[in-house]
């Protein structure tokens, strides 16, 4: 059964809500009383409770500038590689697992780009209608999604997908849930 969770950010906290399970809370830094390995700078902690007393995973920045996902006992779960900040057209995200498997994700799959092209005239009409109405309108984002797949599997099933509404889905046992949570937060976390 696939794991589906939604990303929510509030003024003072950030959390992931898996469907049918307790929320996963995101806290800045490392858990208290648990020193990190040498050369690691803490970024954020994924915890089962808001206080961070029972951490699930810790995301740290290593010497090379890459993000590492560690268990609370400092076992290496994955390495996350984010695109450069200035990359604007189809940024690429990578997840490298300890067994050597690499998952690559690009924003904008072919079906979502085609859907964007089909919906573009309707969105333009909607924006024109908003200019003549009294209601405040937020600018809608493009209907794109991101899919993390193994290299060479162009039409294979992705290990992790993100929809336009911030909903993530992990299929089967292809990816540790803690790594999926860390990727969901790292994609939008302040760098």
Percent of residues in beta strands: 25-35%
Rg, Cα atoms, Å: 18 Å
**Judging from the principal axes of the Cα atoms, what is the shape?**
globular
Low-confidence stretches: 134-143
Please give the alpha-carbon distance between the first and last residues. 33 Å
Number of helices: 2
Series of H and E elements: EEEEEEEEEHEEEH
Average pLDDT across residues? 78
Major sheet description? 12 strands, antiparallel, barrel
Helix content class: 10-25%
Secondary structure tally: strands: 12
Helix/strand-derived category reads alpha+beta
Strand order of the largest sheet: 1-2-3-4-5-6-7-8-9-10-11-12
Written account of the structure:
It is a single chain. By secondary structure, the chain is α+β, with helices and mostly antiparallel strands. It has 2 helices and 12 strands; from the N terminus they run βββββββββαβββα. The protein has helices at 110-132, 177-188; strands at 3-9, 14-18, 24-28, 41-47, 55-61, 67-70, 76-81, 92-96, 102-107, 146-149, 160-162, 167-170. It has a 12-stranded antiparallel barrel with strand order 1-2-3-4-5-6-7-8-9-10-11-12. A hairpin with a 5-residue loop joins strand 6 and strand 7. It is globular, with a radius of gyration of 18 Å. The two termini are 33 Å apart.
Topology:
Elements: E1 3-9, E2 14-18, E3 24-28, E4 41-47, E5 55-61, E6 67-70, E7 76-81, E8 92-96, E9 102-107, H1 110-132, E10 146-149, E11 160-162, E12 167-170, H2 177-188
Antiparallel strand pairs: 1-2, 1-12, 2-3, 3-4, 4-5, 5-6, 6-7, 7-8, 8-9, 9-10, 10-11, 11-12
